[in-house]
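Hi U.,

Before I forget, here's the chain from the pilot set. I'm dumping it here mostly so it's searchable later in email.
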Amino acid sequence: MLEKKIRLEALDDVREFVQAATRCNFDVDISYNRMVIDAKSILGVMSLDRTKDLTVQYWPEDRELEKVLSKFAVA
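Structure:
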């Protein structure tokens, strides 16, 4: 399982992230604290507190998804 920390501040960021997750043929989850959401659900992702760092979990590696995640990566 790969894990990245991201922050999605704008609605366009959410849309771009969800579109990238939807193109994956494997599960992509996004979480904050104990709440885990399917990253392919735009309503689910929008329900998270986007002012906080979010954790994305996925497997296997996917270059296209990782390219999008790097745009929103938290240092």
